[in-house]
Automatic annotation (TrEMBL), chains A, B, C, D, E, F:
Enzyme class: oxidoreductase
Superkingdom: Bacteria
Bilayer-crossing regions: none
Annotated InterPro entries: NiSOD_sf (IPR036502), Superoxide_dismutase_Ni-type (IPR014123)
Keywords, sorted A to Z: Oxidoreductase
Gene Ontology molecular-function annotations: nickel cation binding; superoxide dismutase activity
E.C. numbers: 1.15.1.1
The name this protein goes by in its record: Nickel-dependent superoxide dismutase
Length: 167, 167, 167, 167, 167, 167
């Protein structure tokens, strides 16, 4: 009943003040979403380079060029969002004490994602993937989950850090 | 050079008519996004049931109730979107010939996601997860990737079909 | 009052389990949204072909080219979404029994929308419109509403299947 | 070829300055999208009033209450967006000269949509529908398309102004 | 308590009918969001003109051209949205009586934003900024807040109407 | 001309590799968007507390409760996005050298925004505003723009850090 509930607000809130520091909290965080977004950026660059092999671009090629750049852009934003969520919602003092490089690494992912967005540059995308894999590795370590590297089962066939759930 | 490109449109398009049947095509499809969304729905129901254990709800509990329902809703939509993308973009005649149940299974996922959205009903969510796991299993089979079942490394600790990339 | 409500959860949910299979349910479904989206794709192709008539493209033409492709892309996605909603939320066993072609037709709309998105190809867009009109015709039939074909009152002046509400 | 194109920018832009005053321009405007959104708001209120008939609300009812309000909210925003597009993109001086009430009518739709969003009030929704129907009637008149009123073929079975395309 | 609340619906709604005419209402309206969006459009045109200075465009330049046009497009839409919100939610009869030009000014902003979206035309963007500044000036006047003009502290270094909060 | 452009890709990219590290770059960053979002959260809490003053909630009050919580939620997300953009796109090594607290401050804003989202707690919102004002102050300092504190000219009438542009 609302009336009583509100009568107990202070108590409720003091309880919340000590306990509630993350969203919902659903505790379902997984760097795979960020990793998939980087893979998509790499894939877009590979396809842009296939267009590059042509001596001239047809109208369809021009349109495809624009679609590829737009997808690269969108997934670059997604990388930033996904990392921001894990960094800003999951990572708290205990994780920062254990992995003091997390602020610097997270920030360097933002800069690397910007560079990969602004350029058609595979090495910039691979540099971003390397940072996101490092982030994923630390994330799984912080949860006590072992990891392994494997080639993702689709293009662009890059090495991804996965949690070892089979063991 | 645009002028030439447009001069060659007919040729270009006849080429495209036989080859182009999917978006971009980036070929990066992964059912994990749909699986994560179902796990989130299950988690929301678990948290809604924790609220249920309380004899009355504070204003914060009321707000949390609304936030949990909204997240469940949003992730139910995400399940539908992710399955629609794989069903509508990746699955073509060869996959339908090999797995004739795909239309029926995909459609049943839509109905199951609606049911899980409209109710605070864990069994409806688990039924949805079971269907999405079946879909994931077929998806990986169709790509010649072996799968295994493992408990996801976060709440709600359900069994998920994963591609076996370690082998 | 919340307390009693939660006390009666089992009863409530068993009721829901048998009755609830669609979203909200608001029962307001109309294929016109999908039809409008296809018309927009056709219109974009017509405008892209007007650009094609030019011997060279100015910077504004280049920008317009990109805007037209982006709009075609966005509306191609909208077609998929709108059809997915009717197929996945409205169409259930009774409609599937009456119109067994609905899975195949819905899936072929997804593939046709992808093709129309990826190409500057009027015939691909017209093929998509034909399929969406077939879908609209079945939809209205399933509701016992007669239909008629008429030219839409705006560009690209294509024949659209409309419900006959005047009778 | 870009170089030449840019060399001719001034000429190009002076041309554009006299001709280009609307988006794209695709010329595909249809008030049906706004009308469908109002119908959805009315439907949400009807369903909210069905909940009202219950002596108490279960947890599922509470969740449904929130989902209905959220849908009403979202569709109220959609009404505003759809009317803003036609008013701001399609309606220009000639339409304003012919229908001087358009600014006042469009603005009153915004206020009526706000009222319908903020209240669970069927009469406020019906008032909004009446204004949107008036807007649709003027829109079709301005295009020289006759209109008729008919009951929409789904709940909430309200009278809608439709273009007469069968004639 | 829900039961009683619903028993008192008529009384509640009659109260709402006379009082509720805006969203939420949060009363936090600020034209700065629209002004920032116009500044971004101007900035995109300046950067597009920097590309113009090049004798030819690399693939990166082509991609950047598309990104700049897309950003200009997106911010043109944002201008329309932000002005629609203030015009449609905040401006009511008292403001219309005091500033009878508001309908015409708001509508002219929509047309000017469309023109600025469709062209790479700095003068069109500056014309839009002038109108949005006029709108901002009237808005602050209507709230009894004095304004001043100053150069915004970032590119494109244009004169913006700001509320004078320092006095 | 595309052919030449692509022929010169390596050269182009090596140029880009040293120069391009931010999005677009449009250089238009303004913390006012984040500040407005926090003000909205505070306002939502004030309105939620007005509801609190009522002995019972009508159906409209229940709906308003949900709308207020949803707006608070949405603006909490906006605070995080706006701060992420400035931290991740604008702040680079020079700013970090001058203001070494920026990582810690940005991260603490994410945690504070989560807390303000999850609770109906004015003090949590005010704590968030204080952090965002600190962030704004450093941002303007880093650009050599003096700041001053003033009460925002709308509810919730809180002290905001503004750039001093009048001087």
């Amino acid at each position: 009943m609302f009336y009583n509930a509100f009568a107990r607000l202070d108590e409720v809130f003091s309880f919340n003040k000590v306990s509630a520091h993350c969203d919902i909290p659903c505790k379902i965080y997984d760097p795979i979403s960020a990793q998939l977004a980087v893979l998509t950026m790499i894939r877009m660059v590979d396809l842009l380079e296939e267009l590059h092999a042509k001596s001239e671009l047809s109208a369809n090629d021009q349109a495809q060029f624009g679609r590829l750049v737009a997808q690269k852009e969108e997934h670059g934003l997604k990388v930033k969002e996904e990392i921001r969520v894990i960094w800003g919602d999951y990572i708290k003092q205990p994780q920062l004490d254990a992995y003091p490089q997390l602020h610097e690494l997270s920030h360097s992912i933002m800069l690397a994602a910007s560079k990969a967005k602004q350029n058609i540059d595979k090495s910039a995308c691979l540099e971003l993937l390397d940072k996101v894999n490092q982030f994923a590795d630390i994330f799984w370590q912080s949860k006590g989950v072992a990891t392994f590297k494997a080639t993702c089962p689709y293009p662009p066939a890059q090495q991804i850090v996965y949690p070892d759930l089979k063991a």
